[in-house]
Amino acid sequence: MRRFILPAIFCALLVLIAIGLTLMLRGQINKNKLVLYGNVDVREVDISFRVQGQVVQLCFEEGDFVPKGALMAVLDKTPYDDRVRQAAANLESAKAAFLNAEILLKRRQGLIGVGGVSQEDLDNAQANRDSLEGQLLAAEAALQIAKDDLSYTAVYAPNDGILLTRIREPGSVVLPSEPVYTLSLTSPVWIRAYVSEPNLGKVDYGMDAKIFTDTKGGKTYYGKVGFISPVAEFTPKTVETTQLRTDLVYRLRIYADNPDRGLKQGMPVTVKLITRRSDG
Prior knowledge:
The protein is an alpha+beta fold. 35% of the residues lie in helices and 34% in strands.
């Protein structure tokens, strides 16, 4: 029996040593990781027109994916078409008056040397020509403004996004800058998280992060720390942490890669930061 006891004891010691080394390694790894909790945050854009008018077309419904540059909504163009035609007619009239004034000025300049006209007549012709030139420039600007207003009757998506809210319907009369949609942009996507003051020194710009959702079998996302608030605040009530809610924390922003749009606005996530290795 003795010859079996010694090998058994030796094997047991090896197992204990292996377990001890594993725990030490895990402890060292855990020292180099910082676990935070936060929520997905994205930018939102209120889509509105730059001119007033009656909405005649809304191209998307709530929840639709909207590609960058897509036509989103259209106003009734009729009054703006009329203004363009009116401005174009005024421009033609100003051009005709200006050309006539130039002809009269040249005639008087030719006659002034032989005494055919007085200096006063020449000065009046020059002043009339200059005045009509100013009116011509004003008419050109008015036409361009009318064309710009006409183009503003259509609004396009500034970036890829998901339509959160359809605020207006066709037939509604809207004022300039009055929202008709709210668009949630798909990029950039970041995580809003908070770190306690004792752990603040472990966090640095550009630090790699792994992002996990509560979805069973969900994929792991990756990102980097892009913002560290210089101002301390109390832990928000909506954020779950292992510390007391009365602790002072600093807000972080972790920019995330989100190729499949799996990270959605407001989604709670867990963030693991790989911190600096401890000395020694």
